[in-house]
Amino acid sequence: MNKQNILFKGVVVLVLGLNLIIRVWGLEVSPTSINWDEASIGYNAYSILTTGKDEYGTYLPLSLRSFNDYKPALYAYLSIPFIKLMGLSQTSVRMVSVVAGTLSLIPLLLFINILLKKKWWSFLIWMFYCLDPLRLHFSRVSLETNLSLSFFSFGAWYLLKDKLANGYTASKNMILATIFLALSAYSYHSARLAVPLLMIFVLIDPFKYLLNKNKFEWKSLLNLKYVLLFFILILPIFNDFGSQKILTRFTQENIFNKFYPFTPRNMFRFDLNTFLRINPLYYLIGIIAGHTAAYFSPANYSVNFYHWIKNSVMYVPEFNMLGFWNSILLVPGIYILLKNFRNTKYRLVFYWVVAALTPSAITWNWFHTLRSANLIPAVEIISILPIIYLIKLNYSKKRLTVMFGLLVLFGWQSIFVINNELVYANYENQGEYQPGGFKEGTPIISSLIDKYQKIIIDTPHAQGYIFFLFYQMMDPEIIQSIAKNRTYGMDNGNSEIKFGKYEFRKIDWPKDRDLSNTILWMPATTPQEAIDNRPGAKAIFLKGPTIKYNSAMIVTLD
Amino acid sequence: MALGYPPSAVQVGLGIEVNIVRIISWLILGLGINYFFNSLALEWNIFGLRAAMLLVVISPSLMALWLIDPWISMYLGLLLVGLALYFKSRNNLVLIVIAATIFIFNFWQYGNNSSIFRVFNIEKTSTEVISHFLGEDSLSEKIDFPLFFRRLGYNKYFFVVKNLAKEGLGFINFESWFFQEFHPTDNKSFVILFWPAVFPFFIGLWFLADRKEKRKQNFILILIGLALLNYFFNNGPIYLRQILAVLPLVLIIGDGFEVIKKWKWLMGLMIFLLFYGFQAGIYDWKSQMEYWFDNRPLAYDYIYKTIKTLDISDRTVEVTGLIGDSKIYCRYYLGKICDSKTFKFASFDLREGHQTNKYYIGFMGEFLGSDFNNNFPQNWRQKINDKGLKIVSEMKVKNTIAYRYGDYLLVAIDE
Fold first, then answer.
1. Contact present, A456 and A482 (Cβ < 8 Å)
2. Domain region containing B181
3. Are residues B250 and B326 in the same domain?
């Protein structure tokens, strides 16, 4: 290895290290608190670590029943070493995402370099794309999709590298690709559809025949054996709980379920006029076309904030998926992609986008960053294409000025992104996917629990119990022992549950104030005066993520 | 016209019969379109141009223009002529005149309220920067970055650049170009082109990029630039802001049709889908006029057509002024009688009492008192009757246009 190579790899490792630090920095306070999915993954990992079973008592499951949404369990398994080392905490449960998010930057650099073939320029561009707002955000929250993205990126790298460089597919790399892509499918639902689509598109390359009018090469169908291998590798997922339960999320969210009867409801009638003039099929195809086109619409990557994004873990204030400049570059990027569509390299990027957006396009949301996360690297590559084009142009002062301007803008944006993600986002997201009070209140409960017979908890969150299991590291065997009686779930509504001294239900203050030897945890809406009027009652107010309001109150009834 | 949508305030203000105004708007726009596409025919392929022209003609946004706003129709017609002249001459002076026209027209219409002025408003930007600082400072627990680092990202210069980038990005919006009627934000606006056009658009974009026709590519780039200029300086609904985008879009789609025509079945399918979209769109407009269009002309149409049926010979009429200039509508529908003492045009409040032998025409809140949340009792008819007023006629106005005053427009009298 020559000195140049050592230096290059050294700086790459340095930048990766810096990215790891930015991702891991202050995880205990930012995002302020864990959300219910993080709590569930963390607690189930803890449960598997200590008992070998999840909270429902299933032995080494491949999917976590959790809130009846059957989360892929790989993230929880990979969290076990961190929980073992660091204990069950916000940081330990987020570490898999941190590491996966950092590692996923490597394939991005490799892809840029294979297109540009100038490693230092590739490095410079990559450095700024490492701090893409959504990449940074997803890396600081325990998200199965981020783990899936990382495996998907490595899988796509092994799948595409030979094709990009030499135009053929090497079997060694194909096997590696299939394994990584299968791991991606073990990590998140979307990959289970995106992976076979990507493999089929890449291995068959349908547009080649359309553009060049070549005869179809039947031999290429033999390559589909890797798709078969992929399905064999992921078969155990469906065997675990049965395919129907694994597909629960799709059943709830699919486009057909939510939009039926497709023609706007206020115009739809069961009559001939509707059938002839406003046919549901016309609207259904329109909706699917819209969902697909949404992922080619630069406005969606930066300025169109949909309500389901704004109130969820996907939300990055000020951004949606890409940075401002990245989104602007996406416009000429799409043009360059189409301009070079006859070139296999560019077609492969297009296939990646189409495969990765499909799982999201067939669900009801117009644009969904979580379900389409696997397309992030491909979209980033498209937005890098204009820079690559610029670099490949002949040397000129003008070119250097533009490049310098871009670097300044990207650097400036990166500073804003760090500030925005690590601090400001906590203010914007408070109360939504970062419910306040649990982190502050559970240690208080732990200190009081021995003195009281019962704790009644009333929270506005449907799965409030999971925060207590997580923060108090509740003995999993207690929870597993009540598994048979648990019917509640995310969409079942009923979150009333009892275990040990804990009871989760609505609190009726005029009635429950008469209880004794009890702790009540309730929204901070009952006036202090009412508490003072009950002899032997004391209230402790729990601050929310901001100092402006109390998120809950603990009332001790002696 | 077949839609039966009543005249808009701008059309009424001209004092000419609305159908004549619409025909003139349509002619001006039509002549502009014809001249523009004929001029392009010198270098463009004829088939693609015809397809593009057809798409412009059936564009919902353009149809809405000649239906509602004669001034913008005229503006667009003139721009089309200007653009055709530029295409023929390639004289940059013509281009400057076109850009100046876009700026002056929008400034005349919206003053300094357009988005670009907001972006460069330093006072507003400073407030936005401060709100970021205040938000962060209110957190109970947080990572403390040094102030200089925070300042590097949170300063008015960065925020101006950021807001400018965001504003510009809103222009490249496939949702408002092709999918407005499906769009989940329920942003009430007309779509630029029906969604089936998205397929030939992508094919056309590829075709345009694939070929080395610099002159054509540059012209489309100029059209996009001018459309962006209009987008920045216009403060109307999204379809008006994006109205000039229709030209580069249809030219690209026209190229798409040039590619598609090789496959007759695909061409047939595309034409079928586009015309099906057109008729479905018209059906949608007709059956939900109050959803897609401004409800005020509908309300005035109802008011003055109802007055025509009333006996007002020895009575007076008080008409609500809550939804704009009622008198110009009155003159349009009823003529000079509106200048007499018979009519009074202002919002009224009948909580304290009313006069007899006088028609009151207004929203339910003007009869019962306004409500901050627009909530009115179920028995509102009874309550108005209890006041001694008889409801002669009523109309439910969808998409509340007089919030706090209810959704019912009433005609009532105490005889």
1. no
2. 9-124+154-289
3. no
User: How does pLDDT run across A515-524, given as a tens digit for each residue?
Assistant: 889 999 998 8
Q: Is residue B61 part of a domain?
A: yes
Answer whether B182 sits within 8 Å of A543, measured CB to CB: no
B5 Cα to chain A: minimum distance (Å): 19
Q: Give the Cα separation of B210 and A392 in Å (integer).
A: 19
Poorest-pLDDT segment among A85-99, A253-267, A364-378, A488-502: A488-502
Calculate the alpha carbon distances from B212 to A117, B137, B208, B259 in Å: 25, 55, 8, 16
So what's the ipTM on this one? Answer: 0.88
Residue A487, pLDDT > 70, answer no
Question: Which range, of A85-89, A121-125, B100-104, B376-380, averages the lowest pLDDT?
Answer: B376-380
Residues of chain B positioned with their CB less than 8 A from the CB of A339: 209-210
Residues B207 and B345 in one domain: no
Closest residue in B to A279 (Cα–Cα): B280
B98 inside domain: yes
B263: left (phi over 0), alpha (psi -120 to 50) or beta: beta
Confidence of residue A491 (pLDDT cuts 50, 70, 90): very low
Nearest-neighbour CA in chain B from A435: distance (Å): 13
CA distance B195 to chain A (A): 6
Q: Share the mean pLDDT of chain A.
A: 89
CB-CB under 8 Å, B152 with A290: no
Return the residue of B nearest to A281 by Cα: B273
Task: Provide CB contacts within 8 A for B242, sequence distance 6+.
Answer: B61, B171, B173, B176, B177, B192, B227, B231
**Number of structural domains found in chain B:** 2
Give CA–CA dist A54/A469, Å, rounded.
13
Distance from CA of A313 to the nearest CA of B (A): 18
Q: Are both B336 and B379 inside the same structural domain? A: yes
Please check the confidence at residue A554 and state whether its pLDDT lies above 70: yes
**3-state secondary structure string across A479-525:** HHHCHHHCCCCCCCCCCCEEECCEEECCCCHHHHCCCCCEEEEECCC
B120 belongs to a structural domain: yes
Whether residues B163 and B212 fall in one domain: yes
Mean per-residue pLDDT, A217-246 = 83
Rounded CA separation B142/B145 (Å): 9
Query: Taking residues A175-189, what's their average pLDDT?
Result: 95
Do B197 and B48 share a structural domain? yes
What's residue A494's pLDDT?
47
Are B264 and B305 part of one and the same domain?
no
CB contact under 8 A, B185 and A306: yes
Indicate the pTM of the whole model.
0.90
- Name the residue among B169, B209, B284 with its Cβ closest to that of A335: B209
User: A418 and B166 in contact by Cβ < 8 A?
Assistant: no
Q: Are residues B256 and B398 in the same domain?
A: no
Do B325 and B355 fall within a single domain?
yes
Contacts with B143 from chain A: Cβ below 8 Å: 25-26, 29-30, 422-423
Smallest Cβ–Cβ distance between A324 and the set B162, B184, B205 belongs to B162
* SS3 of A305-373: CCHHHHCCCCCECCECCCCHHHHHHHHHHHHHHHHCCCCHHHHHHHHHHHHHHHHHHCECCCCCCCCCH
Out of B234, B255, B289, a domain closes at B289
Q: Tell whether B4 is covered by a domain.
A: no
Top residue of A213, A287, A338, A382 to mutate, by most chain B CBs within 10 Å, is: A338
Interface test with A, best of B115, B125, B132, B253 (most A CBs within 10 A): B132
What does the block give as tokens for B54? 């057809």
Q: Which residues of B touch A32 (CB under 8 A)?
A: 139-141
Q: Are A304 and B173 in contact (CB < 8 Å)?
A: yes
Question: Of A294, A318, A546, which has the smallest distance from its Cβ to B140's Cβ?
Answer: A546
Please report which confidence band the pLDDT of residue A492 belongs to, taking 50, 70 and 90 as the band edges.
Answer: very low
Q: Which residues of A touch B283 (CB under 8 A)?
A: 267, 277-278
| Final residue in a domain of this structure, among B256, B273, B289 | B289
